[in-house]
Design a protein that fits this description.
By secondary structure, this protein is mainly alpha-helical. It has helices at residues 11-28, 33-40, 44-52, 59-69, and strands at residues 2-3, 6-7.
Length: 79
């Protein structure tokens, strides 16, 4: 969809992109799901759901992930 000059994506597509990027940046820094889950205070199963796009990552959790992995938040939304 386009609205003016802004291209919009479906929320489900954005959730998938964010999740894929969480996994990509986590793996690039050699951090396990268990380690990252502990830092953001969720179970590793919940982190798996974030990474698969099954569950939406809250702004607060995304901020913590961003800080821990040293990745600007905007990077999580890029393909």
């Amino acid at each position: 969809m386009t609205k003016g000059t802004i291209t919009t994506r479906s929320i489900a597509e954005i959730d998938l992109i964010v999740g894929e990027n969480i996994r990509k940046f986590r793996q690039a820094r050699r951090v396990t799901q268990v380690e990252l889950a502990a830092v953001i205070e969720v179970s590793f199963q919940q982190l798996q759901k974030y990474e698969s796009g099954k569950n939406r990552t809250s702004a607060g959790k995304l901020y913590l992930i961003s800080q821990f992995l040293d990745v600007p938040i905007a990077q999580f939304f890029t393909r």
